[in-house]
Design goal:
Endonuclease, Chain A, 434 Repressor (Amino-terminal Domain), 2 domains, six-stranded mixed β-sheet, Cro/C1-type_HTH, alpha/beta, 12 helices
Length: 288
């Protein structure tokens, strides 16, 4: 089994392989621009996933870069996949390009690891919990809230498909279980939903809580940190970091490595799966 096809992942892999090959062969950008009649800016856009080469141009690049027949077929297939439209493009009016890219990467990922310091991760939220997070935004119309909830539920689909190899690991603070987002009823239903997911999908979900008794953690004080892992060995792990005012994909290897190490430390500090489930049930029963 493999992850579903994703135009975003296909486009990224195509650009990555072309750039790596150019650097491996030591081909200067000027050689490419003179051979194919590109501007330097156009080729930069190709390597940075802002442009997808035409079939004719890609074929010429494949020859220039001396790819063999098998690699040529793979690259042409990637181009075709990159031209498709993902489900998230339906919501392009709601989400900026970076968030849409996150959804596309998530769709083609083998697994996602998520740290949240106060909120239940989006992939595990109930509709009411999601609405409660969004409603304080006075600039958001009700119809927009509905569409955002719909998009979030669409992202969750891979969790419930037992034929999909996707796995999700989340580390959350105990504060997440106590912060009454939306009020007691909404939080109680959210915790019940969370416990049910853990019990029904033990092979796909690994949820851990960092208890209040933990004395230190490198992610304390942070907001959202997500690590996105892929089956394809040619694709490195990427990170997503989000605060109130900033968000974006991180692909710098050093930063991703540091975030990965910090996440792994947080995972080790957290309760094990059984103790986490007991704590979720305990806090659910305590809610007035």
């Amino acid at each position: 089994m493999s992850a579903p096809a994703s135009p975003v992942v296909a486009s990224w892999e195509l650009a990555l392989r072309l750039k790596r090959r150019r650097e491996q062969l030591g081909v200067e950008v000027r050689t490419i621009t003179e051979t194919l009649g590109f501007t330097r800016n156009y080729w930069s856009a190709v390597e940075n996933e802002r442009k997808i080469l035409s079939l004719e141009s890609l074929t010429r690049i494949v020859e220039l870069f001396e790819f063999d027949d098998e690699e040529k077929a793979e690259l042409l297939a990637l181009r075709a996949a990159a031209k498709e439209r993902g489900w998230w493009t339906r919501y392009s009016a709601l989400f900026d390009n970076e968030i849409q890219r996150l959804y596309g990467l998530e769709q083609g990922a083998r697994g996602v690891r998520d740290y949240e310091n106060l909120l239940v991760p989006g992939l595990l939220q109930t509709p009411d919990y999601t609405r409660a997070i969004m409603m304080p935004d006075v600039t958001m119309r009700p119809v927009e809230v509905d569409q955002r909830v719909e998009a979030r539920l669409r992202r969750q689909a891979r969790l419930f498909d037992e034929n999909d190899p996707f796995t999700f690991t989340a580390v959350i603070s105990e504060a997440t279980l106590r912060q009454q987002i939306g009020g007691p009823r909404v939080l109680r239903n959210q915790l019940t939903h969370l416990a049910t997911l853990i019990e029904r999908h033990p092979g796909k979900l690994d949820i851990r809580v960092i208890p209040f008794t933990a004395t230190a953690c490198g992610l304390f004080g942070g907001a959202t940190v997500v690590l996105i892992d892929f089956d394809n060995p040619q694709l490195p792990t990427l990170a997503w970091q989000e605060t109130v005012t900033t968000w974006g994909i991180i692909d710098d290897p050093t930063q991703v490595r540091n975030l990965t190490t910090t996440f792994e430390d947080a995972y080790r500090l957290a309760l094990d799966a059984r103790a986490t489930l007991r704590m979720i049930h305990h806090h659910s029963k305590e809610i007035d």
